[in-house]
Structure formats: C-alpha cells, structure tokens
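tool_call predict_complex ligand=iron/sulfur cluster
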Amino acid sequence: MKIVKLKLEDIDVGTHTPKHIDEEHRSKIESMKKKIKKGHTLPPFFVMADKNSKIKYRRLDGFKRYLAYKELGYEKIDCIVVDESTNIDLDDKAQKKLVLITGYKCNNNCRFCYDANKRSIPNRTTKALLKDLTIGIKYNCDYVDILGGEPTIRKDIFLLIKKAKEMGYERICITTNGRLLSYNPFLEKLIDAGLNSIIFSIHGHNAELHDFQTRVKGSFSQLLKGLNNTQEQAKIKDIQIGSNTTITKLNYEHLPQIGEFLVKNGIKNSEFIFVDPTGEAYNNFKDLVPKITELSPYIKKLLDIGISNKIPHWHIRYFPFCYLDGYENYISEKYSPFQKEVHFGPEFTNLDVDESRKIISRVKAPQCALCKFNNFCEGVWKEYEKQYGLKELRPIKNGN
Ligand code: SF4
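tool_result ok
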C-alpha cells in the first residue's frame, strides 16, 4: 500500500479541504465516483495527527475517498484524529485484506461457533472463489486470508492458494484449527502451493480445555503437532505464524496460562477475541458469555504477559475500552481505521467490514458520548446488551 505524507501547509486543517487537486487526483476521483452511490453509509475518513492535533499523515485512499465524497456533495465527513501513540506502520503492505469465507463446514464443532446455524448453507464453489480472488486484486488487496468453517478440509485448497499466488497476492494465509497440518506432507503441499501465513485457532492451553471447547477429543494434540510442524517449516521458509483465541466463560479464567502457552510456543502475532454471541454462543449465552466486569482483570493479566515478553502483536478484540484504560494500544479496534478488509462469504459480500459491524452488530450506551475513547471504541455486541444491558459501560474522561 502506498502512503503519502502530506505537508501541513498542503492542508487547510480547519475545513479539511486540500488546497489543490491535481489531474491525477481528478481522474481517480472520477473512477471513485462511479463506485460510490449517494445515500450509502460513509466510511469514516481518517487522518493521523500529533498530540496537538496538527495533521501529519493521511492515508492515500482515505484522501482520495474524501475528495470523491466532497465532489458528490456530502457535507459531513467523519474525521478521526489519533495521537502518535497509535502504533501504525505506515509502510505495512499487509493492510488491504481479502477474507475468503469458503463455507461453514468444519471438522471441529466448537461450543461457541458463530457459524453453527449456517452449516446447511452450501460451500462456495471453486469457480466462485477464484472469481472472488480476482475481485480482491481489483480492490488492491495484497493479503488474502482463506477461512471457513475449516478451509483445509476443502479439496481445492491447494488450487486456491496456487491461484492466489499467481494473481500476485503477497501474503496468503489460512485461518485453521490446525488439525490437518499434523500431517507433514499435507502442510508441505500447502506451502509449496504458495501458503506463507497460518493463523491457528487455539482455545485452551491444554487438551482438557481446548478439546472441551471444540467438542473433538484429540483436536488439541493434532493442533499442537500441526503447530510444531509449521514451526519446523518456518525455520527454512518464510512463513508467518499467528493465533486466534476465542474468549468464553469456559476459558477466561485461564487466559494467563493460555498467554504463557502461546509465548512458550513462539507465537508472535496473537489476537484474543471476545466471543461473538451469535450462532451457538447465542444459543448457550449464559454458559458461554462472561460479563465484562468479570473478564477484565484476566484480560489485563493476559495483556501484561504479551507486554512483558515484548510480543509484537498481542491484541484483544471486541472489548470496550473503558475496562482497559491504559491498555488501549493493545485493542484491535484502535487500529481498524487503518486497515481495510473486504469479505466474501457463501451468502454475502461485505465491502466495508468494520463499518457494517459497528452499525449492525455493535451498540454503545448514551454515556459513551462523554468518553474519550468514543471515536475508536465499538461498545459491546447487541446480543450482549439484550442479556446484560449497558450499565457496565463507564465513560473515561480526559485526565482520568
Ligand atoms: S464508555 Fe462507551 S465509548 Fe467509552 S470505552 Fe466504554 S463502551 Fe467504549
């Protein structure tokens, strides 16, 4: 992704209007205008600013989008200003991401799975997925994450990876329960096809906890073998290894042990996801979804483990900022304005994942308007509000 750094004098900070629009920008605006229809919800327009709110950087695509909106006559354009403590790699090439949800079939049966009610939806066909990959290239995605359900149980997984490589994706990732990677020849074949990034779903630090969550005996030992096989391959090949952990009532008291387990196993890119209470988690809400107040001390202990071990990426996702004051640099939503994701699934297309999630799935309380984190924080899941209400949310004021 190309990022331009604009000089302060190029921008009229008061109105956010650029002083000049060159011809190159004009032609980009014209093509942008064809894609944007009036009446659509506007994604926010983002700037980076220093602590005195003087604009230092703009994302090029945000800048172009802004110009296009202006020309279409939109009057209000959201602008989020962040301070320098936001740890953004402006040259990070892996920030335009295509997420390919290949289908909802899986060889695990996790208790919290938000896809559980969708198993009967047919998997996306090979032909449709190849088309999705070409569309991702048109959207300038250079990172594709192939997931399910479970993507490794598809017969065409090697072909999808090979084609993604041929099309020019730089980072080709699968998100997997890791069980089939316990077979080394299978893993090698994936890597030979072009796979260079693997995110393992790890929901416990031992077999008892992980297998209880996945409802498949032996899933942890296969996962561990798959992880070890991948680490061996990563010694000789360029393979990024990451992890996702879904936080539920079943594992939250063990988050520090899970953190230690990930560190011990050399994982340097971990996301901890506060369970999305849809699908199976909604069906068993009270058994699976902890209250924020109960969860927060364990999350802090978990984050401290990543911080003290200097793990480069160690983030909690979908958790309100008011329970992590001082830890906000470790909350994924702080960075989502700078990442663009396009999702294709068997029954949907979502070209603005973060924005639609905020509108459709998340909710905040009236008191959030007073909070210093209001710009970034998404509040809680709507299903959480239905069950537990919003009284826990407590605005953090500047200077607190
Ligand atoms: S009060 Fe609202 S905006 Fe502030 S951190 Fe909590 S949920 Fe987020």
